[in-house]
Amino acid sequence: MDEPERQMRIKREPAIQVKTQAQLDVMREAGLVVAHTLSALAAAAKPGVTTADLDAIAEQQIWDAGATPSFKGYHGFPATICTSVNEEIVHGIPSPAKRLRPGDLISIDCGAIVRGWHADAALTVGVGEITDEHRGLLAACERALWQGLAQARPGRRLSDISHAVERSARGAGTYGIVEEYVGHGIGTEMHMDPAVPNYGRPGRGPLLSAGMALAVEPMLVLGARHTRLLDDEWTVVSADGTPSAHFEHTVAITADGPWVLTAEDGGQAGLAAVAEPVSSGAHSNSGGG
Ligand code: MG
Ligand code: MG
Fold it and tell me: How many Å lie between the centroid of ligand 2 and the Cα of residue 122?
């Protein structure tokens, strides 16, 4: 193709890094470090624990695993993990002054690097007993993530993931779907092309192919989707002050389907759960032609 045509093509379709199997295997190592760290943090998020305590656990565990925390120092971020409590949606900064209380929701976001390759994941857990309404919010966000991940296969288009996330979240209730912050490509850097929105029409954007890796990360708010940035210039909160949830996984697109690098079982259980029909009208999406 001639130069102007080539440039237009580049503008329309961001280049997506394609990894070899050996490179994905290293990303899987990073993914398992993140998975193990997040499960330790989820277990440690009890009433009385501070978000700085959680950060210390994460930093120690990542270094002990022979990996490097990717958030610390990223654009000046001061900690190993992001801890976002209740109305905080993402990018909250751990603090010794922030002590968890029963009924809180805490979102923990964690990234690690192994030999130059990144993995990134997040989850939200309840501290002690939480309300049914909050449990519903967490379940809706996690299910939306897995519905999106299920679309991460060769032959689908990028927005098939976005659409599946949105459709699942809208089907679960009247939750606000955050639009200002989105998922992303991942590999030799944490944030790479393409952006992966959590909403949109299916069948659009770049064609997915084996060797690509994406971080899919829906953020749902119990109230409206609008956000506000706090004065620390990191912490994103819901504008209406209602609590939120954030679930994220790094997924590799392979000839055999989605390989969820940050799930201990590679995603088998999570993908199987969303493959089961939830009503008689449910069907599997045959993908964006
Ligand atoms: Mg993350
Ligand atoms: Mg991410």
Answer: 8
